[in-house]
Amino acid sequence: MVFKVGIVGLGHMGQLHMQNAMRVDGVEVVAGADKSEKSRKYAERFHVKTYDDYCKLIDSEDLDAVIISLPNFLKKEGVFYAAEKGLDIFLDKPISRNLAEAEEIVRKVQKENVRMMLGVNYRYFPCMQKLKSKLDSGEIGDPVIATSELVMNGPISHALVPVPIPEWWLSKDLAGGGALLDLGYHLIDGLCWLMGDFEVSYSNLEHKMNLPVEDAGTIVLKSKSSNATAVVNVGWFSKSIFPDFNFRINMHGTVGFDSTDSYLPADARVNAFKEGVLNVARRVARKKPNYLSYTYFYSSFYTIMDMFFDALRTGEEFPVSLEKQLDVIRIIDSAYRKNEAK
What is the pTM of this model? Predict the structure, then answer.
């Protein structure tokens, strides 16, 4: 079966998803939609038909699924429209702006009997997969303390690679939140995937750059089923450029310690060159290349996209459940409320 797919939203992430979907076996990217002419022209370079309105795309094309990469405030209406047309959905994280909206979205896809998966790709970083394997093998023991960090530019890009700031990104109403919702979502999802269910015991969110939404924060999570504690540190205040990437999860258990840092390439540029050479060799040998492996982290976007379509093809459960994504947004919602109550 060939899955006919539409891309709803052709911004930076939508373009990445489009290119990854085009590389998945048995997938045909039929068309994309975006209000930006520049974004549409980008898609057209790959011979993808475009629309200036995703409703026109969905109504006009014979689709099996859509990849939705819309701003947070448009996600609910985009999911609703696609679900009502009977289309399966791959949705960018976060699932929504807040818990109430997330619950509406989940109820809608269940009511319309369509399938939806969130693109929480950080789980599929090679270093995260190796940490998970060590934990599952018992080499760390029972987790007692975990710390996680993700500090990036956020909406304010480095001066050497300037990018305009979308107006919605700095609006609490339109975005739903700042660094915690944007970056913390990945960390909290990863910690829940590694260690189980949590509740918020402490939350401190800051506005170091006087933005309308938080640009830094620390929250402390306590396990509901054990004595484990996890700390989440996020920030939008770093001015970094690839290959610098300030992300890690450290885990202390009853047997030992491990960290995602233990599995990173010693030199990102050397790794990029090596993977590039290996992919050339794979093509020569008529083997499938490891897409985006030269970037190390970005290969996870292809991995999770491939998993989405594989689950649709086989009828198996998605590796990312909507119930667990509700848990993630529930934790974030609780952290916002605890911070406001201080």
Answer: 0.94
